[in-house]
Write a structure and sequence with these properties.
With 181 residues, the protein is of the alpha+beta class. The protein contains three helices and ten strands. The chain starts with a helix and ends in an 11-residue tail after the last strand.
């Protein structure tokens, strides 16, 4: 009985196809195998472009994505693929009448869009309401980056909502900080 069980475990671990679908194993050889596609040479230069590293299956290839400006047409979502373009900083793709366009986050009422991160909203509102407040650093999802520094003097760790958590250091030692997210 044990031998049959062991055989089944080994068989399933080495199975490359289940129900007609190939199972990818992302190891070093996957990206070097020409059958899995060859990465195209990318020239991603200019302020209206952004390089997404390791963007394809198994992280083999990079992709250049166009940065859209306010008023440009955009796509709300892409299923299982990276888009060809995204709205630029402080902009969000939103349905307006029949069109989808990039709009300033500050122009989108909070009640209309809960997907805008707290950090992104604070960053947009910083000029309007705050003097001397530290400028937050936001991640790609509009949440707070794990570290917040105040005017080159003191840094402390924050959670994704910008609330201070354990961990602080002087600015000159901030590169050594290990803030948990």
């Amino acid at each position: 009985m044990f031998i049959i069980y062991l055989f089944l475990i080994i068989f399933v671990q080495n199975l490359d196809v289940i129900n007609g679908q190939e199972i990818r194993t992302c190891d070093e050889s996957y990206c070097r195998n020409p059958q899995n596609g060859v990465c195209k040479e990318i020239h991603c230069v200019g302020k209206d472009k952004m390089l997404y590293k390791n963007a394809t299956t198994c992280g083999c290839c990079h992709k250049c994505i166009k940065i859209l400006e306010e008023g440009d047409p955009c796509q709300l979502s892409m299923f299982r693929t990276l888009p060809e373009s995204v709205c630029g900083p402080h902009l969000k793709c939103q349905q307006v009448d029949r069109d989808r366009i990039c709009r300033k986050i500050s122009d989108i009422p909070e009640s209309d869009d809960e997907t805008v991160g707290l950090c992104e909203r604070e960053l947009v509102d910083l000029d309007k309401y705050s003097v001397g407040k530290p400028v937050p650093e936001c991640d790609d999802f509009g949440q707070y980056a794990p570290k917040l520094c105040r005017n080159g003097t003191l840094c402390h760790c924050v959670d994704k909502n910008g609330q201070r958590i354990f961990g602080s250091a002087t600015y000159d030692k901030s590169d050594d900080m290990d803030c948990c997210e």
